[in-house]
Design goal:
- With 301 residues, this protein is of the alpha/beta class.
- The chain has two domains: 141 residues, Murein tetrapeptidase LD-carboxypeptidase, N-terminal domain (Rossmann fold, 3-Layer(aba) Sandwich); 144 residues, LD-carboxypeptidase A C-terminal domain-like (Glucose Oxidase, domain 1).
- Strands 6-13-12-7-8-9-10 form a seven-stranded mixed sheet. A six-stranded mixed sheet has the order 2-1-3-4-5-11, with helices on both faces.
- A hairpin with a 2-residue loop joins strand 12 and strand 13.
- The chain is globular, with a radius of gyration of 18 Å.
- Keywords: Carboxypeptidase, Hydrolase, Protease, Serine protease.
- InterPro entries: Carboxypeptidase_A_C_sf (IPR027461), Class_I_gatase-like (IPR029062), LdcA_N (IPR027478), Peptidase_S66_N (IPR040449), Peptidase_S66C (IPR040921), S66_fam (IPR003507).
- Belongs to the peptidase S66 family.
- This is LD-carboxypeptidase.
- It comes from Rufibacter roseus.
Length: 301
């Protein structure tokens, strides 16, 4: 995997939305954070326009991402919002200049499509981390500080409390993953996530119990768990009960999908659509250790 250059004071960074429309107040908050980090924010053309739920029509969102990728002065690109939209434009984007000048791509949720495309097709590391939209609920120091550390190349290591469904073990491998439903939507495309020999991170929000089960079953039958080195389960937020009840908690649904394998499993990692969203470096080597006392996850970059 290629690790983009870490940021330093004075670097220019792009702000765009390749998915849904972003509120101006959240963008202002992100600009202030980047200013505090001594970075120079460059606001893209998708910040402001609205086309239905999107941050502008497909062509504008594609062009904005393309310009940020092509500009060698831009050292990182921050997606501001999830939702839906990257899948509509990703195959039209030319990554040639990006490969000459790799840079950090930051976001989560719908950005999962971008993460898996860039790692699977190009072998470049990206960051699964908090976005401007999260400022709607206020500034969460843990989330933003972990993102800053990832971007500036500081040590990134986490401890996670023990969970009754954890499976003990230790492994070191490249980390990939993201939102479960987005990974399912990417199956059969050039952006499909490659999990072979990797540590997989998963998270989800706002789905029914049965639908979470269907996504995980689909990933299982597609072989996405067959050759894993480890699984880190992030936040499963607002997973709604069925009628009649499905009969399992969201965590039990995940466990049911992976119980027949042998790789270590860590539940309860604070990343995804919850209050805390700790940064993860997809495409970088990660060390995962799970024991009865808890879990540790650290990145070797």
């Amino acid at each position: 995997m290629i690790i983009p250059p870490y940021l330093k004071a004075g670097d220019k960074v792009g702000i765009i939305s390749t998915s849904n429309y972003s509120e101006k107040g959240n963008i202002d908050g992100l600009v202030q954070i980047l200013d505090d980090w001594k970075l120079v924010p460059v606001v893209g053309k998708t910040i402001g326009p609205r086309y239905g739920s999107f941050a502008g029509p497909d062509e504008l969102r594609k062009e904005d991402l393309q310009q940020m990728l092509n500009n060698p002065e831009i050292k990182a690109v921050f997606e501001t919002m999830g939702g839906y939209g990257i899948a509509r434009v990703i195959e039209q984007v030319d990554f040639t200049q990006f490969m000459y000048h790799p840079k950090w791509l930051v976001g989560y949720s719908d950005t999962t499509f971008l993460h898996s495309h860039v790692q699977g097709m190009l072998g470049v590391a990206t960051i699964h981390g908090t976005m401007a939209a999260d400022l709607e609920a206020g500034y969460h120091a843990t989330s933003w500080e972990s993102l800053r550390k990832a971007l500036f190349g500081e040590k990134l290591s986490y401890s996670v409390k023990a969970h009754p469904l954890n499976r003990a073990g230790s492994s070191e491998a490249v980390m990939v993953g993201g939102n479960v439903s987005v990974m399912c939507n990417a199956k059969g495309t050039i952006s499909e996530v490659n999990t072979n020999g990797k540590i997989l991170f998963i998270e989800e929000v706002g789905e029914k119990h049965f639908r979470l089960d269907s996504y995980l079953t689909s990933l299982k039958y597609a072989g996405k768990f067959s050759y894993l080195k480890g699984l880190v389960v992030g936040q499963l937020v607002d997973i709604q009960e069925d009628e009649p009840p499905f009969g399992k908690t969201p965590e039990e649904i995940v466990w049911d999908a992976v119980k027949d394998y042998e790789f270590p499993v860590c539940f309860g990692f604070q990343a995804g659509h919850g209050t805390v969203n700790k940064a993860l470096i997809f495409g970088a080597n990660a060390q995962l250790t799970v024991s009865e006392k808890g879990s540790t996850l650290s990145f070797k970059v």
